[in-house]
Amino acid sequence: MGGFPITASQAPRYTGPLPEAVDLVVIGAGVIGICTALLAARRGARVVVLEKGLVAAEQSSRNWGWIRQQGRDPAEMPIMAEAQRIWQDLSRETNAQIGLTQSGTTYFARSEKAVRGYENWLPHAAANGVDSKILSRAEVQALYPDLAQVPQAALHTATDFRAEPWVAVPALAEIALREGVQIIEHCAVRCLDITDGKVAGVVAEKGTVRSPRVVLAGGAWSSLFLRNHGVALPQLSVRSQVAATVPLPDVGQCAASTPNLAFRRRADGGYTLAPNMTSELFVGPDAFRALPKFLAQLRLDPFGCRIKPYGPKGFPDAWGTRRRWAADEETPFERMRILDPKPVPRIIAKLARDFATLFPKLGKVELKASWAGMIDTMPDIVPVVDHTPIEGLIVGTGMSGHGFGIGPAMGRVLADLAADRPAGHDMSRFRFARFTDGTPMVPGPDV
User: Fold this and answer.
1) Which CB contacts under 8 angstroms, 24+ apart, belong to 259-263?
2) Domain that holds residue 206
3) Does residue 19 lie within any of the structural domains?
4) 273 and 243 in contact (C-beta within 8 Å)?
5) 78: three-class secondary structure by DSSP
6) The dihedral of CA 49, 54, 55, 57: what is its sign?
């Protein structure tokens, strides 16, 4: 089950005619969209998922595969607990081996300041029934006996999970199909169909679907879709890079974060590697518009993001990407079916060297694949999950690198919001209006 992220070279699996009318249209077939559709269908709704590219082809198959409570924003933790329960339930329903494993998460302490940050976060874990704790140097060495340099301490949560994203999300799509959800790939939604100020459906490249409710789960494309309707959302996307090693001896089952890199064991015996705490922002018009909202995040970690002066052609915030179009015009979503940023060879090669330095007994670490993805992020590093100013449109986006793990529970919340049912959690931290009502942008825990 080595698998790799889904790419544009793969042909669509889910085709067919558009339905005339449904109860709910979901825009985007990533983990958030698929889970929303599945859980809405289980409540009796007629649902269609419209995807401009392929199921899980963007960040939902490119992420690290962590399903963690550790380090979460306190407002996310009850939702994450629900997500972990749903993951376990769904893993028993799928015909695929998604690699769901309760292997734990470990964050190595980089400094005394990091230890204090971990200690400050622990009360949130305790309040949510999570068994996180600070490990001593000896306990870290017992967990990772082959480490070249053992940190003074680490934050550890034994109950966290991992899974294989490129297997898991398509497997969830298959469950959704069995529950009656219709999925149509290579069918971009161009715009909403709005009547008397309310959603009446969507206009897609293949036609119109009538629906009183629409959930926008478009990942890095969500802000662009909303802007065409005159709705501003300060969402940016940053590039994160990942490498996959060949099968290696077991040097640790826990997903781990060290000063230089993050790593996790994969089901095929290899490790997934990624740079820790670094990403790249391609500057475009939206970056300038959103800058005031992101100042708090920049002050917290001024060197955590490398700035690139412009994005590749066709990217959501590239300088040449159109911001406005009509229902009968080709859109940026059709011009770029799959957002497939290229990894930087220099950065990928360093990941292999850093992993070999961390565990010298491995010798030279060979890689079998590398890729990159665009993480949709918000100024306070928590998502937007709420109704929008357009009546009938609900948005679930800006998961800020947390989407894969929390996806099943956020999908359940979005399905209930679309049906005018209670969310079941305090969602005030994730409301849409926080960007316009004067709410200070307070990033989540620095853990």
Assistant:
1) 259/108, 259/110, 260/354, 260/358, 261/351, 261/354, 261/355, 261/358, 262/64, 263/355
2) 24-435
3) no
4) yes
5) helix
6) negative
Within-domain flag for 14: no
Query: Tokens standing for 334?
Result: 């059709």
Listed in sequence order, the residues at least 6 apart from 386 whose beta carbon sits closer than 8 Å to its beta carbon are: 394, 395, 417, 427, 430, 431, 432, 433
- The DSSP line for 90-121 is HHTT-SS----B---EEEE--SHHHHHHHHHH
CA 191/CA 183 separation, integer angstroms? 18
Query: Can you give the pTM of this predicted structure?
Result: 0.96
Whether 11 is covered by a domain: the verdict is: no
pLDDT tens for 409-440 read 999 999 999 999 999 999 999 999 999 999 99
Task: Encode pLDDT of 222-231 as tens digits.
Answer: 999 999 999 9
Give residue 277's pLDDT band: very low, low, confident or very high (50, 70, 90): low
Residue 44 belongs to a domain: yes
412: Cβ contacts below 8 Å, ≥ 6 apart = 35, 36, 39, 82, 86, 424
What is the reported pLDDT for 2? Answer: 43
CATH label of the domain that carries residue 391: 3.50.50.60
How many folded domains does the chain comprise? 1
- Residue 45 to residue 39: CA distance in whole angstroms: 9
Other C-beta atoms within 10 Å of 194: how many?
17
Cα(276)–Cα(61) distance, integer angstroms: 19
